[in-house]
Description:
Layout: E1 8-11, E2 16-17, H1 24-27, H2 29-33, H3 36-39, E3 49-54, E4 72-73, H4 88-97, E5 114-119, H5 132-144, E6 149-152, E7 156-157, H6 163-178, E8 182-186, E9 198-199, E10 207-212, E11 228-233, E12 237-240, E13 248-251, H7 254-271, H8 277-286, H9 308-312, H10 326-334, H11 338-341, E14 377-380, H12 383-390
Parallel strand pairs: 3-5, 3-6, 4-5, 6-8, 8-10, 10-11
Antiparallel strand pairs: 1-14, 2-13, 7-9, 12-13
Helix pairs in contact: 4-7, 5-6, 7-8
Amino acid sequence: MASALGALLLFGGALAPAATADTVREREWYLDRMQAPEMWKVSTGKGITVALLDTGVNPTAPELTGKVLRGKNFVEPERGAHQDKNGHGTGMAMLIAGNGLNGQGVKGLAPDARVLPLTVFGSSKESGINSVSALVEAIRYAAESDAQIISMSLGFEDYSLESDEREAIQQAVDHAVQRGKLLLASAGNSGAEGNDAEYPAASLGVAGIAAVNEMAAAAKFSVSGPQVALAAPGDEIQVPCGTDNKSYCNSGGTSQATAIASASAALIWSMHPDWTGNQVLRVLMNTAARPTEGEVPSRYIGYGTVRPRMAVLGDPGDPGPADVNPLVAARAAASPSPAASAPGGTAPGGTATRAEQPTAAPAAAGASGGKAIGTGVWITAGAALVAAVAVGAILLLRRRNTAGRGAPFAP
Length: 411
């Protein structure tokens, strides 16, 4: 079982106060780079529900009015899923489906999608660290729900897990994939320090999501390795500063990238409601901006940076078989071993060293029982630090270094 981490949670995404000279919308650089306004003329994610496994979601946040379903709390059932102690889950929900408040708030990439909040974090010192069992239960619950996409901006570092815990996560993932769901999870933010593989991103069948910056390069904080399937914008991303939902901060992490990748999938799936998660994932992979150098998949951005516009505004191509997960198929093709060819095997934990990076390479969570995840900011379960974030204080463990790694972003 997980060893105790104490009162600390490791959270994905460093927060820094945003400039006040412009609107929030003007700071959402990735929406323009991805040609979101053009895509919204065709698809807004309507009809798609994203199950968000996180800290809960505050449905009273102005950007989320009418978008948040009831959900469920797997740590403190009596609190429900509509309380968010520190704002992480609410911020991720906004990146997926926020209405933008006429440019004054966060605009989600799939503004007409709905969010099913599934809480896997507690609110107190005693319950503030989530458990593998909560994650597993939430994945299985999402698999039986009407949600098409399971978005997990969290992770458990490989070394902190027992083999039976990895297997329990894998079995839950297998069940969700068999139910036609698309699962995406943060690759992790320890790329510059440790570069530890994390679960469920490293679980076979889950799309591990890395982060890229505005310069089209994979971020140094983003974990690299064979578990990375795709990348998405994850640096200098606007989210609420804590829980007040009135001020906004720049943030960075694979948590944000996972939310944006999930919204990308929602845009495509909304146009093809008869597809399965396997088919949506295959189209995301086939239309991604490939690495400019090295092999594909890359250890840093996988099959490339998501470009939903290629499928939304153009020809999505052949989605392939409905019942074959492309990541499982790719693993089987790469290795003849039975463990590699069948769902239920765990992804290799091998990761790249800094010397292996082409130029400069490419979560939020903790585990109940205390598994810590590689992320950018430490947030205690104590109310004092939560309150500090809410008023815009900087809880910056380290400033992300995002020097290039030759990963193209969608033109």
